[in-house]
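Whiteboard transcription, Tuesday session. T.W. wrote the structure tokens on the left side:
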């Protein structure tokens, strides 16, 4: 029999604090309808779900909530809040609960990534600026040997450049050849661009750690440096959470800046419309390889909405052919998170993360697509792992890979994520 819950000695401090911190966090408005839990892929993991989380906060079960590891399994994807009839901000409650864990007890992977980032003034992998510069210079020389790219430049700290780009440090550190397709695209459109040296990486594990101070330090340093260079746009490359960390961080910490924050996905679309990126889908006319897309929650549901989702589809359809594009259902702002968000890839709860991803795996399997195009690093890593774990057989590609494939400029070493059907195509 279920034990009767005794509430007399409960504190209920948490509820008051959250209600002060989060304007739309009025937990008392919860109707207990369960809509949030029905649509949340983390429901049932570790015996918790968003509705139960709210009930526990309302009932004052602060002690139980403040040490529950489920907050590191929830990806803060915001699907629950979008569905909630009372618009209760569950992700902010989760963020607050994370922030209440003693710092040294938070997941080591997320903690170390945050600390490496702040200490190195570069990125979460702790790579020094000199090493980043070395990789960029070395690769620039390599790519300049390819016909058509003899004049390609990949500068760092070029003053007055139109676009300042961040770059997820996974590329320079573990798969440097993945940098080249992006540079080739920028070269093809004649973009005036530069990397920036201070906090150059496009990731932010301090946000996942719920460490406001470090999150702000990273964003503020980036903003000041990009403004000092005089760049008109800060361009976030293919990474979802880094866009959100900048977009939300600039507002949350009230950081003054002169540049406009934009996503590379919207720029790809603009350059295709302007004819500067002459992609076409002829290459896939006979092959008829099917592609779908993952809408990353951070630039779609949590910030740019359909402006991003529409351009994402426009780019992929232009490259693979509309007849070879299949949607995941549900999609766009109603899409499911893949389970790799919120820092979960760096947290120790792998079993839960893969169970969370089951919905995504089922969605992809239902499309029959051979490829998932993904403009987000965390989605990329998780969906790749889901393909292996659930034996889905699909491949996961960055947009830069298929854009360059369509343009006939994808080099031999730039095909890590293509399947055997495309590994040598067009070489
Ligand atoms: S933010 Fe996402 S994972 Fe977390 S409770 Fe809401 S729907 Fe579930
Ligand atoms: S959807 Fe909103 S109102 Fe319904 S149970 Fe969840 S938090 Fe409460
Ligand atoms: S990993 Fe991708 S799908 Fe998941 S929360 Fe992050 S952006 Fe969203």
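and on the right, the sequence the group agreed on:
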């Amino acid at each position: 029999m279920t034990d009767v819950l005794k509430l007399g000695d409960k504190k209920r401090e948490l509820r008051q604090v959250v209600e002060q911190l989060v304007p739309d966090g009025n937990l008392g408005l919860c109707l207990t309808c369960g809509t949030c839990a029905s649509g949340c892929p983390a429901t049932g993991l570790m015996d918790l779900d968003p509705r139960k989380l709210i009930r526990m906060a309302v009932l004052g079960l602060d002690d139980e909530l403040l040490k529950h590891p489920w907050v590191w399994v929830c990806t803060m994807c915001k699907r629950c809040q979008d569905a909630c009839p009372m618009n209760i901000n569950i992700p902010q409650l989760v963020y607050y609960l994370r922030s209440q864990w003693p710092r040294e007890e938070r997941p080591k992977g997320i903690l170390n990534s945050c600390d490496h980032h702040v200490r190195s003034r570069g990125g979460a992998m702790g790579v020094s600026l000199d090493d980043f510069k070395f990789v960029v210079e070395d690769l620039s020389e390599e790519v300049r040997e390819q016909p058509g790219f003899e004049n390609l430049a990949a500068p760092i700290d070029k003053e007055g450049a139109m676009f300042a780009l961040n770059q997820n440090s996974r590329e320079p550190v573990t798969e440097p050849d993945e940098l080249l397709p992006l540079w080739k695209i920028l070269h093809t459109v004649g973009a005036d661009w530069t990397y920036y040296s201070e906090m150059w990486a496009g990731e932010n594990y301090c946000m996942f750690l719920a460490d406001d101070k470090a999150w702000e330090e990273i964003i503020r340093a980036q903003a000041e440096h990009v403004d000092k260079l005089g760049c008109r746009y800060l361009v976030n490359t293919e990474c979802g959470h880094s866009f959100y960390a900048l977009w939300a961080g600039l507002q949350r910490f009230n950081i003054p800046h002169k540049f406009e924050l934009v996503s590379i996905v919207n720029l790809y679309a603009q350059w295709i419309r302007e004819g500067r990126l002459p992609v076409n889908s002829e290459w896939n006319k006979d092959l008829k390889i099917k592609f779908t897309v993952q809408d990353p929650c951070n630039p779609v549901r949590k910030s740019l909405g359909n402006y991003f989702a529409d351009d994402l589809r426009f780019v992929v359809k232009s490259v693979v052919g509309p007849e070879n594009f299949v949607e995941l259902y549900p999609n766009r702002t109603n899409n499911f998170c893949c389970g790799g968000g919120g820092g979960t890839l760096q947290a120790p709860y792998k079993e839960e993360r893969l169970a969370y991803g089951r919905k995504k795996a089922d969605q992809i399997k239902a499309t029959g697509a051979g490829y998932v195009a993904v403009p987000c690093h965390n989605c990329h890593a998780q969906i790749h792992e889901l393909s292996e774990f659930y034996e889905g057989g699909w491949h996961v590609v960055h947009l830069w890979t298929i854009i360059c494939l369509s343009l006939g400029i994808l080099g031999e070493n730039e095909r890590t994520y293509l399947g055997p059907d495309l590994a040598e195509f067009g070489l």
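Someone added at the bottom: The first strand starts at residue 163 and ends at 165.
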